[in-house]
Design a protein that fits this description.
The protein is an alpha/beta fold. Helices cover about 15% and strands about 35% of the residues. It has two domains: about 90 residues, Rossmann fold (3-Layer(aba) Sandwich), CATH 3.40.50; about 110 residues, Hexapeptide repeat proteins (UDP N-Acetylglucosamine Acyltransferase, domain 1).
């Protein structure tokens, strides 16, 4: 029996769990079970999936895999490091209509929601979240634990560093080979913003064109 755990049963977890039921890499492997893993579970089931604690998951018999459906990237990193150290294998969730075109590399534990597209020669780190209708264009480099909200337009030759968050409907203009647009580590791009130049680490930008609103500590 293979056990596929979705860590987090909030809105995003409930959105992506049904995708696992459609993935050939899962359903072609014989008997499997999909569960939610949460801290201090209050419900036995959510949307037809059993809900268990992290400890219960670790004690289950079978081949165990996990993905993390939690927006907070720091929390995502902490959970991933804990489960990997316990010998649990990350798996990627990808909708059947998510498009991965040509010569892209994608790290472990990604979530590619319906109608997402990754075009060509992009390099994407671990535990990337691409929500519905988002795309990553050619020659982009995306770090670990990066989150795209729905309908993010990340045009070519953009570098997005670890733990950055790109809000719903944001547009990042294309960079150039010698001068890519860089979204710094831990930066936040606000909903609907149009990014025309690089964003410093741990800086929140908003507007059209996007302008700095505040900075935070790492």
């Amino acid at each position: 029996m293979k056990i596929y755990a979705i860590v987090g049963a909030g809105g995003f977890g409930r959105e992506v769990a049904p995708l696992v039921n459609t993935m050939p890499s899962v359903i072609d492997q014989g008997d499997f079970r999909i569960i939610f893993v949460v801290d201090n579970p209050k419900d036995q089931t959510i949307n037809g999936y059993d809900v268990v604690s992290r400890e219960s998951f670790l004690n289950m018999e079978g081949d165990k895999f996990f993905n993390i459906a939690i927006a907070d990237s720091k929390h995502r990193q902490e959970i991933s490091e804990y489960l990997i150290s316990a010998g649990i294998t990350p798996f990627t969730i990808s909708a059947l209509n998510a498009v991965n075109l040509s010569h892209n590399t994608i790290g472990q534990g990604a979530v590619l929601c319906p109608f997402t597209t990754i075009t060509a020669n992009a390099k994407i780190g671990d535990f990337f979240h691409a929500n519905i209708y988002s795309y990553v264009a050619h020659d982009c480099v995306i770090g670990n634990f990066v989150t795209f909200a729905p309908n993010v337009h990340c045009n070519g030759r953009v570098v997005i560093e670890d733990h950055a968050y790109i809000g719903t409907g944001a547009i990042i203009r294309e960079g150039s080979p010698d001068r890519p647009i860089v979204i710094g580590e831990g930066a936040v791009v606000g909903m609907g913003s149009v990014v025309t130049k690089s964003v410093a680490p741990y800086t929140t930008v908003f507007g059209n064109p996007a302008k700095p609103m505040r900075t935070t500590q790492p």
